[in-house]
Amino acid sequence: MPIEVLMPALSPTMTEGKLAKWLKKEGDVVKSGQVLCIIEAMKMENEVAALHAGTVMAVHVQAGQAVQAGQALVELADA
Questions:
Q1: Which of helix, strand or coil describes residue 42?
Q2: In whole angstroms, how far apart are CA 15 and each of 1, 3, 31?
Q3: For residues 29 and 52, what is the distance between their CA atoms, to the nearest angstrom?
């Protein structure tokens, strides 16, 4: 069953951020807690980590793009 990793809302007023850099690519195997990407929001860089182990199946947002809070960043295949 696919698992979507969503853009986190880092504050109650945050509506969007920017995906600064991918640290993983399609086909990579990740463990729970591994950092997938870096996002820029509220004048800070923040890490987005996998909450589940799996394989990166689809990247939905490219580096440099604006992302709405709650939008899917990446899809993982269950480990």
A1: coil
A2: 28, 22, 28
A3: 11
Round to whole Å and give the CA distance between 68 and 79.
27
In 3D space, the residue among 67, 72, 35, 40 whose CA is nearest the CA of residue 57 turns out to be 72
Query: Is the whole model's pTM more than 0.70, yes or no?
Result: yes
C-alpha to C-alpha distances, 10 to 6, 27, 39, 70, nearest whole angstrom: 12, 28, 11, 11
Do 16 and 37 contact (CB within 8 A), yes or no? no
pLDDT digits (tens, 9 = 90+) for 1-54: 899 999 999 899 999 999 999 999 999 999 999 999 999 998 899 999 999 999
Q: Which token pair is 20?
A: 């600064």
Cα–Cα distance measured from residue 26 to residue 6, given in angstroms and rounded to the nearest whole number: 16
Look at the block and give the residue holding tokens 């997938």. 36
Owner of token pair 């945050």: 14
